[in-house]
């Protein structure tokens, strides 16, 4: 058994680079050791990292009973819960996945699209005028309100505001990168980071369980055919192959996963997209022409080819998640390497998306590469792959299009500065170092969106 070569620096030094400068660190390892290398972090098994499409295919199509994604994600258990689909493997994972998939596909996207556009309008109305601001924070507001309305079925009011505040408080602490390290997950009282996190987690859990039980009671008394079409309603109705529903605790953890993972990742993708739109010559003007050529409806926005290409190129050049991985339960051969049991096998999304053999000028933002070209799921995989591909992929892509179209239809934004920005870690996501700092030059009324940009 052998692992690919890798840096021989002390594990603590490697951890510093992994947390503080993840993309340069990965690039340096690739340039030194090639497309497969191994890193070592404190108190964790060695992690073999791969970026070659053939190696990625080996991992994504490998035996799911041997290559365990749930075990690899254990560092997220305290954030998401024991029953989160991200924590599960084997039959438990497949059961949960089958129950969760239907609400995030099909005709419901149109109804969700209207919620997404409304949330974008609300945020745009609050953009400060003629003074620099970080657009990432407003994108977080949008994606959080979309989840609370589309997933929980909450309308504007005290209940939505209370849950939004609880989740915001929780995430302000949870995104601190060192909390991913087991050594930092110690409750040293209410003033310690982990102590504060646990306080807000208990508060959020209580509100989620209250909402689940309230909705169960409402369903029991509501006439057939009058059920809502939000995700929570559909999950409450879902049954597995044995006719069993999701328990309150399973629902709580899945909702927590949607709140923590879905909200933060999509907001970050939107901030990166606006950065590239505003700083790449010609792209904004082309998008405005595409938007102006027809009605401003969710159905039409979803079909806009250049907008779709801009979203995909954003996720190629700056994937929100730098990697996805598995822990090996048995020895496995990947890319010519015989990996022993117990190690991590990781697909580097960032490095795979930067391969010049696949993408011409890989460091340049060029949405045209996605017009008329379809890359394999082992070359382009911003949402992971195989049976572990993100359940919310279609929802996230749809939301990015709806929000970007609304921002372009109503505003003229300009970069607040010309300094280079870099990707910085917020827990598991990689965000723009300046939050995508912009200046609002013009804001049109909501009604103008009906006529596009």
UniProtKB/TrEMBL annotation:
Sites where the protein binds heme: 390
One Pfam family from the record: p450
GO molecular function: heme binding; iron ion binding; monooxygenase activity; oxidoreductase activity, acting on paired donors, with incorporation or reduction of molecular oxygen
UniProt keyword annotations, A-Z: Heme, Iron, Metal-binding, Monooxygenase, Oxidoreductase
Family per record: Belongs to the cytochrome P450 family.
PANTHER family: CYTOCHROME P450 (PTHR24305), CYTOCHROME P450 12A4, MITOCHONDRIAL-RELATED (PTHR24305:SF166)
Full protein name: Cytochrome P450
Origin species: Chondromyces crocatus
């Amino acid at each position: 058994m052998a692992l690919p070569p890798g840096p021989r620096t002390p594990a603590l030094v490697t951890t510093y680079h992994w947390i503080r400068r993840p993309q340069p660190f990965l690039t340096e390892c690739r340039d030194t050791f090639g497309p497969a290398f191994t890193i070592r972090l404190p108190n964790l098994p060695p992690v073999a990292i791969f970026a070659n499409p053939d190696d990625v295919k080996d991992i994504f199509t490998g035996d799911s009973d041997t290559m365990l994604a749930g075990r690899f994600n254990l560092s997220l258990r305290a954030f998401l819960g024991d029953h989160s689909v991200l924590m599960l493997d084997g039959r438990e994972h497949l059961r949960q996945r089958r129950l969760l998939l239907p609400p995030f596909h099909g005709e419901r996207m149109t109804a969700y699209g209207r919620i997404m556009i409304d949330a974008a309008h609300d945020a745009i109305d609050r953009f400060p005028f003629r003074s620099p601001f970080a657009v990432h924070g407003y994108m977080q507001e949008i994606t959080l309100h979309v989840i609370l309305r589309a997933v929980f079925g909450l309308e504007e009011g005290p209940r939505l505001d209370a849950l939004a505040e609880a989740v915001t408080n929780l995430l302000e602490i949870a995104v601190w990168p060192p909390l991913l390290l087991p050594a930092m997950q110690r409750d040293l009282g209410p003033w310690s980071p982990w102590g504060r996190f646990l306080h807000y987690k208990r508060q959020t859990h209580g509100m989620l369980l209250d909402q689940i039980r309230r909705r169960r009671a409402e369903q029991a008394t509501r006439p057939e055919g009058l059920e809502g079409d939000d995700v929570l309603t559909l999950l409450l109705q879902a049954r597995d192959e044995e006719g069993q529903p999701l328990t309150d605790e399973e629902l709580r953890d899945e909702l927590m996963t949607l709140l923590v993972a879905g909200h933060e990742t999509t907001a970050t993708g939107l901030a990166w997209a606006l950065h590239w739109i505003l700083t790449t010559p010609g792209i904004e003007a082309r998008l405005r022409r595409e938007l102006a050529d027809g009605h401003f409806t969710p159905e039409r926005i979803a079909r806009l080819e250049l907008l779709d290409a801009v979203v995909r190129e954003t996720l190629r050049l700056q994937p929100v998640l730098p990697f996805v991985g598995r822990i090996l339960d048995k020895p496995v051969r990947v890319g010519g390497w015989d990996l022993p049991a117990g190690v991590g096998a990781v697909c580097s999304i960032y490095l795979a998306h930067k391969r010049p053999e696949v993408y011409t000028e890989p460091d340049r933002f060029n949405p045209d590469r996605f017009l008329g070209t379809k890359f394999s799921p082992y070359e382009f995989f911003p949402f992971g792959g195989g049976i572990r591909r993100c359940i919310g992929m279609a929802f996230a892509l749809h939301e990015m299009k709806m929000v970007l179209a609304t921002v372009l239809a109503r505003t003229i934004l300009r970069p607040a500065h010309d300094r280079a920005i870099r990707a910085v870690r917020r827990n598991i996501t990689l965000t723009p170092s300046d939050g995508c700092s912009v200046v609002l030059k013009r804001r049109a009324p909501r009604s103008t969106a009906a006529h596009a940009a």
